[in-house]
Amino acid sequence: MAQVLRALVVEDDHSWQQIVSEILSDCGLEVELATNLDEATRALKSRTHRIAVIDLSLSPNDHNNIDGLRALDAVRKLDPNCRAILLTGFATVELAVTALTDYGAFTFLRKESFHRSQFRDIIYRILVSPPVQAAPTPAPVSTTSASPQKGQLAPVKLPSEKALVVEDDAGWRSILEELLSDAGFQVRTCASFGDALGYLRREKFSLAVIDLSLQGTVTAWDKDAHDPNLEGYQLLSAARAGGIPTIVVSGITETDEIQRVYSEYAISAYIEKQAFDRAAFRRVIEETRKSHQSLSELSALTDREREVLDLLAQGLTNKEIAERLVITTNTVKRHLKSIFEKLDVHTRSAATAKAAGGQ
User: Fold this and answer.
1) Most buried residue among 12, 13, 89, 95 by CB atoms closer than 10 A?
2) What H or E segment, with its residue span, contains residue 197?
3) Rounded CA gap, 6 and 27, in Å?
C-alpha cells in the first residue's frame, strides 16, 4: 500500500487556506487544515506530515502575534521529518532569519510577492529531498514583537551602486535583498546560474552575494563528496575575474572548504547561514564597500605614485622618499600633489589611511 504524504496548513485566513491547499493537493499531498496553534499541535501529535505551511500570525488582525514560530517549534519537536514553510504578510527581517536559522524552516515566503509556480517548485524540491534529521530544541520564543532597532542612523544611499544576489531560496533571497537595499544598493536578485551570469555580463556591480549551492538547501558538507562543479563556485570565479568583491552566504560549514573558498576565490567574507546575524551582515557590507572603494581609488595611481605612497605610509619624509627613489624632493612633492587629488585627501595622514585601507 502506497504511503500517504500529508501536508499541514496552519493558516487562519480562509482564502489563503484555499490557495495553499489547492496547490498542495495538485502536488499529490493529502491536506490537513489548522487555524490556530492548538489545532496544529494536535495534528502534529496524531499524524506525521511531509510538509507544513505555516502563517506567522494566527490571530486575526493581530500583527504582533507570532504563534507561527511556536508552530515551527512544535514541528521540530513533534514531527522532525516534516519540512516547514513560513508564509506570511507580517514578518520582519529579524523574524524571517529566526525562522530559518533557529527554527529550521525550509524557506520563508511573503504573501505580497507569492507566486504559485514558485511555491509549487518549492513543494517539489521538498518531496524529492531526503527526510531531515531531528534537530536540537531551539530557545523559547519571545512573546514580544520583533522590530527594527530605534535610533539607528539612516544608511547613506548610493543608488549608483549595484549588488547582485544569487540565491535559490526565496526566503534568503528576500532577506538579503532587503538588507542590501537598506544599505543603499540597487539590488538584482536571481535564483539560477544562467540568470546570474547574464547579469554579470550585462551590468556593472559593486558587490555580489552568492550562495555556493544553487541546487537546494545544504545542511551538511561532506569533504569526500566535494563537487567542484557547483554553480556557485563558477560564479565566484566570474565575479573575481570581473573585479567584483564577493560575500558568500552559504549553508556549507566544513572548515577546510571555507578556507579553500577564501584562498582560491579571494572573497571578502564567508557567512554561514546557520549563524547569520543581521547586524553582522550589515557590518560586512560596509567593510567590503570601504575596502573596494579604497582599492578603486588606489588603482588610479601610477606605479611611481604608488611607490611614493607606500613610503609615505612607512613614515618617511619627502627627503627620505627622494633618497630612496633617487629623485628630487620637488618631484616627490609633485607626486604627492597628484596622489592627494586622486585620493581626494588633503593631508599626509589621510593619504596614509587610504593606503592602509587598500592593503
Assistant:
1) 95
2) helix 193-202
3) 11
**Model-level pTM?**
0.60
Structural domain that includes position 24:
6-128
Q: What are phi and psi of 64, to 5 degrees?
A: -90, -5
Which helix (DSSP H) or strand (DSSP E) does residue 46 occupy? Answer: helix 37-46
pLDDT (tens digit per residue) in 212-226: 988 643 434 444 444
Contact by Cβ (8 Å): 32, 49: yes
Torsion angle defined by CA atoms of residues 316, 318, 319 and 322, in that order, rounded to the nearest 10 degrees: 100
Q: Is residue 218 part of a domain?
A: yes
Helix, strand or coil, per DSSP, at residue 52: strand
C-alpha cell of residue 91: 514578518
- Into how many domains does the chain fold? 3
Phi and psi dihedrals of 272, rounded to 5? -80, 130
Query: What grid cell was written down for 243?
Result: 573585479
Instruction: Kindly state whether residues 290 and 319 are assigned to the same domain.
Output: no
Mean pLDDT, residues 318-327: 92
The reply to whether 290 and 309 lie within a common domain is no
- Residue 313 domain flag: yes
